[in-house]
Amino acid sequence: MKQIFRILSVIFTASLLMVSCVPDNELIFPDDETEKPGDKDDDEDSPQTNPDYPDTSWATGELDWVFDMNELPEIRITVSEEQWNALLEEYDRNSNTAAYIHCDAEFKSKGETHNFIDAGLRLRGNTSRRRPEGNGGEMHKRDNADWHHCHFMLNLRKYQKDDAHELHNIRKLHLKWHKDDRAYCRELYCYDLFRRFGIWTAAYSSYCRLWIHVEGDKEPAYYGVYAMLEAIDDNFVKRRKELFGDHDHNLWRCRWGATLNYNDIKGAWISIDDDTGNDYVYELKSNTDNFEAAKEQLYEFSKNLTQLEGQEFHDWIAKVCDVRLLLRTYAVNVVVGMWDDYWNNCNNYYIYFNSSDKENYKFFFIPYDYDNTLGTSNNCGVQSDSGRQNPLEWGDTGKNPLIGKILRYEDYRKIYVEALNELCDPAKGLFHYEASIARIKGWHNMIHNYVDNDTEEDCEIKDRPASWGNIYDYRILDAESSMNFFKVKAQSIPKN
Predict the structure, then answer these.
(1) Tens digits of residue pLDDT in 236-274
(2) Using CA of residue 189, residue 194, residue 200, residue 201, what is the dihedral sign?
């Protein structure tokens, strides 16, 4: 039974109202008077207008139009009953299936409507992958379906390879439900922070509303408010080709166990993306015809990373990597409390080599998957508290050498520490608690009327970390709480 809430008629400006219909007063409605993310003051601090941020004009007209945190696009997917049942059968056969089904899609935003006939839809997720309807073995129940939140990939060009099957040059949309994030903001906050901090290697993202209509049903199923993310693939690289330096080379997805340590990399599960749904530790996503050469390059990189020392390592890493970009990327990773990452848990990242030459290339780290952040902490790796963990000792450098080894050098460590302090500087309006709370409240003000959905799951916005986390007291919207994550994290940052 879905709950129906009333917005109280009298609310205090610039505060969050904690509705007292549950024992811990955890339901949240944002103030109607809260500034929206696109209001004047916020625009003045945006990456596009503030000269302190790197130029992002390269994304204007494409990424900025599709992934706009000030908008709430509507996505309606239509699927035949036969195709929907095929998706359910595929999940029952292999819950990691990467199989696509045929669908039609409609995208509405900013007064524009884009229709895509014969697009592709598949399930996504690792531990979060779910059956979108019913239980195992059950087929679609017309007009009586038991819908479930799950992650989807909408591939507009899966079956029709033409410009009509692109959305402002975007071919794929990763649609994620807010799993374990009752605050409906964690992953989007992180990607937005990357963007504000000028980390151009991070994916773009925004909110959307999602409907799925199985033909024959009287009404489409409303899946609610989703996160919409830019897919990291060869087109992700191509859109940034001038920044990467080239776009035809080796993009790897790196999952749990991807230490980049030469002592174990040759024993790791390494393969091309073969559409089997297998969770390869290192999976080559592009330039797959040259897999063996790409693998040898990966081996050579990990060998140098692991074995070089002293000035030789210092100079080599500067030659093959934009160290400043890498360390500023990792500063964001650490302030948001991303423990399920490379350094602590050898997980959740992409890397790109902008040349296929075994020794002459530039290496880029691409951050990925930020739902377990902002106070969703866990006993993992060397960590037990993602808010208080020392940013200079975020993970086991002996196991996962990339970041910790770079930070042994004073000039590199200075870049990292300065970035951490810049993020927490109140004047910058980035990770500081006042600016962060204001942004999140603005997004909540935009979405809170739309989170109630036909899955009857995640129908309330609550200021709580994931229930399975090891520290349940962290808050992100209560500025007065001693456990406000933004404040606690800022206290852990070493001074310049």
Answers:
(1) 999 999 999 999 999 999 999 999 999 999 999 999 999
(2) negative
Query: d(Cα 431, Cα 90) in Å, to the nearest integer?
Result: 42
3-state helix, strand, coil in the chain (%, to 5): 30, 20, 50
The one-letter amino acid at 459: C
Query: At a CB cut-off of 8 Å and minimum separation 6, what does 42 contact?
Result: 35, 36, 438, 439, 442
Instruction: State phi, psi for 198 to the nearest 5 degrees.
Output: 80, 20
Q: Is the separation of the CB atoms in 53 and 197 below 8 Å?
A: yes
Strands 74-79 and 205-214: parallel
Reported confidence tier of residue 214, pLDDT bands at 50, 70, 90:
very high
> Alpha-carbon distance 204 to 48, whole Å?
14
Token pair 């937005």 is found at 192
With H, G, I as helix, E, B as strand and everything else as coil, classify residue 387: coil
b/e for 272-300, b at 16 or more Cβ within 10 A? bbeeeeeebbbbbbbbbebeeebbebbee
Cβ of 244: how many Cβ atoms within 10 Å? 20
